[in-house]
Design a protein that fits this description.
The chain is of the alpha/beta class. The protein is built from 18 helices and 14 strands. 49% of the residues lie in helices and 18% in strands.
Length: 418
């Protein structure tokens, strides 16, 4: 969709299919292309409903792009934070009334926010989908956790495209297999991924996965000391004693908490941070537990004014501002530096403790996106040599493989159109 001629097929498809998706990096170009599609059908609708994460609406750059692109028909625009769709009955009823009484062009920016079929926001938007005249979803990536992420997005675009329940979808596209840890799980094969993308192909108006930066990945492994290994074994046995059933994620959270602050990993962090700051560069250190942040605040190695903390309990905008101007080190819990926060002044990331949630790691990378300015980002993954960390590492690799394959299939289709 680089010029008006190339856009004509997309306009015609939108008029015919009434739905589509743009898989593009978060930025002005994505918004501009979305509005071109809107304007192509503007005379056929009464209003435009733009739904996006509140963090995006809080971004001055994002709001400026929306204002510029909607110039001339601003009175037709309604904006809804995705969080309010599920958390505010009043806002959701307002959206329902809009859909029921008028012809609506609905845009969902960051469609991965509606990937969970159990989430209230997903259920509510899917309940409205068939009553919306035009539906457009935008996302930087098609999926993060696996092929199942595409199910709800396809349902929003066209519920008849798959014509199956989520369980039926899983049985067809996500067969069971037993991994090396003797755990049964569902996972897709390349042929399943290609078949699903083939079904979606008419609805994909653009697929651009060039993030404008190069990533250097470093995996660093650490052994528990004999004393730490013994203490870890004792803690595990004590936790499991007399328990016949334990939820998997409770085990993960508890066991990881036992060993995450091991001596060799902490010492390596100190050395690496010293090396980075001596180069005059900034670094973000991701942790899973607030206890880890408290440990580093109290350990005495970091001077009080040399670092800033970003968690769900801190002022995010203030923390980022301090990081941009005054300090070189940021400790962050996963997920709080969400879309809309600018981390472009940093090119070093340390994952001190790991998570199964691949989406959190991917979202972090989006904060480094800077159009037309290629960058090199150093990613340091810290792994403790335990069965649990190895399970997380393998799981993240599998999710990355699925994402890469789906993106490659979609990108290849785009290239073939040229």
């Amino acid at each position: 969709m680089d010029n008006q001629t190339n856009q004509l097929p997309a306009f015609k498809k939108l008029e015919e299919l009434k739905a589509g998706v743009l898989f593009m990096n978060l930025g002005p170009e994505r918004i501009e292309l979305a509005f071109r599609l809107i304007k192509s059908q503007l005379n056929k609708v009464d209003y435009v409903a733009w739904i996006a994460p509140n963090a995006l609406f809080m971004s001055k750059i994002y709001k400026k792009c929306l204002d510029e692109q909607s110039a001339g028909f601003r009175s037709k625009m309604f904006f809804f934070p995705i969080e309010c769709v599920s958390n505010s009955d009043a806002r959701y009823l307002r959206l329902c009334n809009l859909v029921d009484k008028h012809k609506i062009f609905c845009v969902v920016d960051d469609s991965l926010t509606i990937k969970n079929m159990e989430a209230g926001r997903t259920k509510r938007l899917l309940a409205l989908a068939n009553r919306i005249k035009y539906r457009l979803i935008l996302s930087s990536l098609p999926l993060t956790q696996g092929l199942v992420d595409l199910y709800s997005q396809i349902q929003f675009m066209n519920s008849k495209l798959l014509n199956m329940t989520e369980s039926q979808f899983a049985n067809i596209y996500l067969p069971y297999f037993e991994d090396e840890f003797k755990t049964w799980k569902r996972w897709s094969l390349p042929e399943h991924e290609e078949a699903l993308v083939k079904k979606m192909r008419p609805y994909i108006y653009d697929a651009d996965f060039d993030f404008g930066y190069k990533v250097r990945d470093y995996d660093v492994y650490f052994d528990l000391s004999p004393q730490e290994a013994l203490a870890y074994a004792e803690e595990k046995n004590s936790f499991l004693q007399k328990r016949y059933q334990v939820p998997f994620m409770e085990v993960v959270h508890t066991f990881q908490h036992f060993y995450t602050i091991c001596r060799s990993k902490v010492e390596a962090l100190f050395d690496l941070v010293s090396e980075i700051t001596l180069r005059g560069e900034k670094v973000i250190i991701y942790v899973r537990f607030l206890d880890e942040i408290r440990f580093f605040q109290e350990c005495g190695w970091f001077e009080k004014n040399r670092f800033v903390v970003l968690t769900g309990k801190t002022n995010k905008q203030y923390a980022v501002k301090m990081f941009e101007k005054n300090v070189d080190i940021m400790f962050s819990s996963y997920g709080v530096d969400n879309l809309g926060l600018n981390m472009q002044i940093c090119n070093n990331v340390i994952f001190f403790s790991q998570t199964f949630d691949y989406k959190r790691k991917i979202q972090m990378m989006h904060n480094f996106y800077q159009p037309d300015q290629p960058r090199e980002i150093n990613i340091y993954n810290f792994w403790v040599k335990t069965g649990l960390d190895e399970m997380m590492r393998k799981n993240l690799m599998m999710k990355q493989d699925v994402l890469n394959n789906v993106c490659n299939i979609m990108s290849k289709e785009e290239a073939l159109r040229l």
